[in-house]
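Hey, quick one: can you model this chain's 3D structure?
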Amino acid sequence: MLNAIQNEALNDMYPVPDQIGQAIAVDSKGRPIVAVTVPAPSTSEATFLRAAVAFGSVASSLTSVITNSNQVRFLRVRNTTDQPIDIAFNGTTVNIDSIPAGASEFYDFGADGRDIRTDVYLKYTNSAPSSGTVYINAFY
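Sure thing. Here's the predicted structure for all 140 residues.
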């Protein structure tokens, strides 16, 4: 906590302009030093849904792994199993096919104004995995 004398000294060293964009001083070459507004960092954190599906729970048919009613903008899928997997958003049609074994994929649906407002479904592509886990994060 600054005392009154320290606070006054700081105000003398770093004057506060009357309005943004007003020059508050000049540098050694005579160029104006202008005050600008810098927005405060956001205090909100990303909200997300997540699932970790062990290899033995990855089925041959699409199974809901994330129940969602939010406006999902980003989807991150990390497949640490030993087989490729498929992802769907309606439970019947594969939307993202064959995420390779050991791969990590990131999908930005918000970049072109799209979003996902359904559950996220998962299945293996060809053969049942025998090791690993599938991690899914749905950010909204």
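One thing worth noting: The longest strand covers residues 48-54.
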